[in-house]
Amino acid sequence: RGRIGGRVLLWCALVAVWEVSWGQLRYSVPEEMQKGSFVGDIAKDLGLELSSFRDRGARVVSEGRRQYFSLHEKTGHLVTAGRIDREQECGRLVEKCVLRCEMIVEGEMKVYAIEVEVRDINDNAPSFREAEMELKVSETTVPGLRLPLSIARDPDIGSNSLQRYELSGDEHFSLAVQTAPDGEKRPELVLAKVLDREEAAFHDLVLTALDGGDPAQMGTAQIRVVVLDANDNAPMFDQAVYTVRVPEDVPAGTVLITVSATDADDGVNGEVKYVFQIISETASDTFQINTDTGEISLLGELDFEESSSYELEVQTRDGGGLFDTAKVSITVTDVNDNVPEISVRSLLSAVPEDSPSGTVVALLHVQDHDSGANGEVKCSLDKGLPFRLRSSLGSYYSVETSRELDREAVSEYNVTVRATDGGSPALWSSAVLALRVLDVNDNAPVFAEARYIAWLPENNAKGALVLTVRAWDADWGENARVRYRLCEGQVRGAPLSSYVSVHAETGALYALRSFDYEEVREVGLWVRAEDGGAPALSSNVSVRLLIVDQNDNAPQVLYPPPASSGTGAVAGWTGVELAPRSAEPGTLAGVSVTRWLVVAVAAVGFLLVAFLLVLLALRLRQWRRSRLLSAGSGTLRAVPASHFVGIEGVRAFLHSYAHDVSLTADSRKSQLGCPGGSCCNTLPAAPPPDKCAPLLLPEETS
């Protein structure tokens, strides 16, 4: 054992070839290495920096229940997670023992397959299942008889496995070794000299099995040969090879097959017994044989996934020590007794809602220990979800988004992955992936109303609440936090912020000054709601503030004006108004004269309008006559123009009727005057003509 330990340490210093191809790493290590022993430098082999390697969340997982390897956090090396016994993991029938695992880089959602070959070391010595054997041989047996002996087992392989047998102890016997078709060496005891029971009733021998290790290890078995009286016939099996196919789900205690042998002798020499001559340690725990009947029954449980076939060798012996052997081949058929197993190797607990389609959120490993159609697994997801499955490396599946997510519509998903095998009836299993959708600032605040109108009485107190605007944001957390502020503006040349303000958190609008309806009757402004995202999103709303008039002004006397101390036109007004004697009771004093003056002015205006209308009619009449005169071939061409009233006459009329009107605040001083040199009833006389104008034109008199 000390020398073996030295060889283990030597193997620890030797690491075989590693290879990186198609996302796969290969290493080779000897068995029986201590926990934490170096296997390979994964970080270096993948070309990753050590710090980056750690930050990306790399880890190693193994198929099955046992974890053979782990990842050293500080160095990035692949190391053993415990001692690995090649014989226990792979058995002696497997020439190349390969353990598989995967390295998952969660930061990249990538999987790298790792294969580690476990090399054999000479850590097992050959051993016999029976440390002591007893053989019975008749003294009449002629030399050359061959008696099969128990074979030795060495779990090691290659040169470290069983290589040869040696026999010591007696000259009556020699050793012969036969090689079976499968390469197994089977020792036989050969009778070299005639036995004489009277000379020696038994012979003690030592059978030694040796392997090819350096140094070689060995195992021994004690053999006692008992010399019997004559036994003429040996028992014989009715078949050289027995075969049977058994489903793996047969219950314990079931008889699988019965072997049968007969012996022609009588008495004790004709009685046969059955025993397992060659049987593996696993088979000895699984099967048993009835020594009297030859029934081979199931002792434990069969598992196709652990072993699909068994090869047994049964020996029958009679009472005289003669024997025969037969082979029993048991084939285990697969039954769909394993449900598919789903292992979540990597999972994102949360994903941003703006993640692009195809974002990987989970890595799954699916396996079914059954074989054939029973072990073929199909995976599926519930319909209607924004996710899909994609086959990855080997039995790996990736769960990825099939479209963009919307947290405001669905904030959490429970994604059920179902794995179904191809058996009949099919078996299935499921795994639920809980996934949160992280908020992204993709919604602007929305006001409760499209526009706001508020009424504020004038003369309000400073700081009075006008109204409250309210906006909501469909996002979550800081992205949904809404703050309010005023948009820039002016009122009567002053900044809007000097008139009103808005509370950033509540949206309450306050008046910063007292409004006067007679100065400002309406204020229009915009309030902006902005969320806390980066970058922030915002929206605006119109607010119309109407100032309501209040009875805050007393009536003002415009007439009569108040007395002044200056020398103006109203200085000296005594505040006394005269009323005519004919005034009736209830007549307003100080306006009986003014009222008549207003009536007079109105009458003059009416007369002026009437005169203009008459003048227009005369002008139209004159125009009509001129048309008629032109049509009458110039009959009146000799009449002088002065005999007709024209524009000059009109002007004379207007001049004669011109008035001078003078109005004062004092009704007693109002005057109506007419200019001299005119009379209301006459037109200004035209100077007499020097001679009468002829009635006919000169053409006509001639």
UniProtKB/TrEMBL annotation:
An annotated GO cellular component? plasma membrane
Residue intervals passing through the bilayer? 596-618
Q: Which PANTHER family match?
A: CADHERIN-87A, PROTOCADHERIN GAMMA-A3
Please give the superkingdom of this protein's source.
Eukaryota
Briefly, what is this protein's role?
Answer: Potential calcium-dependent cell-adhesion protein. May be involved in the establishment and maintenance of specific neuronal connections in the brain.
Q: Does the keyword Iron-sulfur apply?
A: no
Q: Its topology with respect to the membrane?
A: Single-pass membrane protein
Instruction: List, in alphabetical order, the GO biological process terms annotated in this UniProt record.
Output: homophilic cell adhesion via plasma membrane adhesion molecules
Stated name of the protein: PCDGA protein
GO function terms (MF aspect)? calcium ion binding
Query: In terms of one coarse class, where is the protein primarily found?
Result: membrane
Q: Keywords of this protein's UniProt record, alphabetized?
A: Calcium, Cell adhesion, Glycoprotein, Membrane, Repeat, Signal, Transmembrane, Transmembrane helix
Q: Pfam families, from UniProt? A: Cadherin, Cadherin_2, Cadherin_C_2
Q: Where is the Cadherin domain?
A: 68-128, 129-237, 238-342, 343-447, 448-557
Secretion signal span: 1-23
Where does this one sit in the cell? Membrane
